[in-house]
Amino acid sequence: MSSPITNVTTGLPTIPSPATPAASSSPQGDGGFFTSLTNAIEQVEQVHTDAQQQISDLLQGNRQDVHNVMIAVEKADVAFQLMMQVRNKIVSAYQEIERLQF
User: Fold this and answer.
1) pLDDT score for 24
2) pLDDT below 70 — which residues of the chain?
3) Based on the number of CB atoms within 10 Å of its own CB, is 39 exposed (0-12), middle (13-18) or buried (19 or more)?
4) Which residues contact 10 (CB under 8 A, 6 or more apart)?
5) CA 18 to CA 74: how far, in whole Å?
6) pLDDT at 64 (0 to 100)
7) Which DSSP category does 13 fall into?
8) CB-side exposure of 11: number of CA atoms within 13 Å?
């Protein structure tokens, strides 16, 4: 029989909460917004690369578990959609700041 479905959130990028030191540190510090964003993008890229590797293995006949490959593809899709929503929010915030008159 097949194995039970595991936690789908594993492998997805984590977004730090506002209370974490990385989110509240200065731009010159070790953390910061840029570092958090770069790490999240790298995690999304890693999830995507893992999904591609699993698809390649399946097509070459090295894997038999199609369901795990589909789960990896869906994780990559959800991670990418999350990244796009974060990008949209950043662009929206930038446009809002741009409209402000000083």
Assistant:
1) 45
2) 1-30
3) middle
4) none
5) 28
6) 86
7) P
8) 20
Which residue shows structure tokens 């990418």?
80
Q: What is the pLDDT of residue 98?
A: 92
Residue with tokens 């039970």: 4
CA–CA separation, 19 and 32 (whole Å): 12
Cβ(32)–Cβ(39) under 8 Å?
A: no
3 closest CA partner among 54, 60, 77, 71: 71
Return the domain boundaries, the chain.
28-99
Alpha helices per DSSP H over the chain: 21-24, 33-60, 66-99
Q: How far apart are CA 93 and CA 99, in angstroms?
A: 10
